[in-house]
């Protein structure tokens, strides 16, 4: 999956048969942020006839939330086509709001689908993208006297050490891809002579420029 940079916003406008379609895009990391952004756009253009929307946002330990709204347009002619564009671009953590000022000419169902799809495509066309990848965090706890040697061994073998903290013992925090845990256990066993094993701490999401 991909997303756009945090706090990033974009806007574009197209005109079709005197109807104006102003499409606003924002990075949203929760459903509440998506709803707040939609409300913000409604308040910015209070005299517009329609504020159609679509968003894809994550939820913990479950599939992404996908929502769309036709906001008074004929059913299926606005929100779903907008959502299809976001899905087709493999995007998440994003909300699109297409504000329409009616120009006096009916566009028909096909015309509306094209207009709303095109408006979103144009708005996201120039936005920088970030690739999302999931990683796993592990803690390896070792005696203080071994910490430097073990950390150096991990780094020289190409493992990502995110930090080392010191309490009763030294805790080395490691990040790796989900399919690398067996190799991680092997190198940790080798460096500690089988005395210590890394403990799983959870997952994280990394954002990498494309």
From TrEMBL:
Impact N-terminal domain span: 17-124
The record's GO CC annotations read: cytoplasm
Q: Sorted alphabetically, which InterPro entries does this protein's record hold?
A: EFG_III/V (IPR035647), Impact (IPR023582), Impact_N (IPR001498), Impact_N_sf (IPR036956), Impact_YigZ-like (IPR015796), Ribosomal_Su5_D2-typ_SF (IPR020568), UPF0029_Impact_C (IPR015269)
Domain UPF0029, chain residue ranges per copy: 140-184
Q: Name one GO biological process term.
A: regulation of translational initiation
Sequence similarity: Belongs to the IMPACT family.
Name of the protein described by the UniProt record: YigZ family protein
Species per Swiss-Prot/TrEMBL record: Boudabousia marimammalium
Upper taxonomic classification of the species? Bacteria, Bacillati, Actinomycetota, Actinomycetes, Actinomycetales
């Amino acid at each position: 999956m991909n997303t756009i940079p945090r706090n990033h916003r974009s806007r574009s406008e197209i005109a079709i048969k005197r109807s104006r379609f102003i499409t606003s895009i924002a990075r949203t990391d929760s459903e509440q942020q998506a709803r707040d952004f939609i409300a913000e756009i409604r308040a910015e253009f209070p005299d517009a006839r329609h504020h159609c929307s679509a968003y894809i946002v994550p939820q913990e330990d479950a599939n992404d939330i996908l929502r769309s709204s036709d906001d008074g347009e004929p059913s299926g002619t606005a929100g779903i086509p907008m959502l299809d564009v976001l899905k087709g671009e493999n995007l998440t953590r994003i909300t699109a709001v297409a504000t329409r000022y009616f120009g006096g000419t009916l566009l028909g169902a096909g015309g509306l689908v094209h207009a709303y799809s095109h408006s979103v495509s144009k708005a996201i066309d120039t936005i920088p993208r970030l690739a999302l990848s999931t990683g796993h965090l592990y803690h390896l706890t070792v005696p203080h006297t071994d910490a430097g040697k073990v950390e150096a061994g991990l780094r020289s073998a190409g493992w990502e050490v995110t930090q080392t903290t010191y309490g009763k013992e030294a805790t080395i925090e490691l990040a790796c891809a989900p399919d690398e845990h067996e190799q991680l256990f092997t190198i940790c066993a080798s460096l500690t002579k089988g005395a210590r094993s890394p403990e799983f701490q959870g997952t994280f999401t990394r954002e990498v420029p494309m």
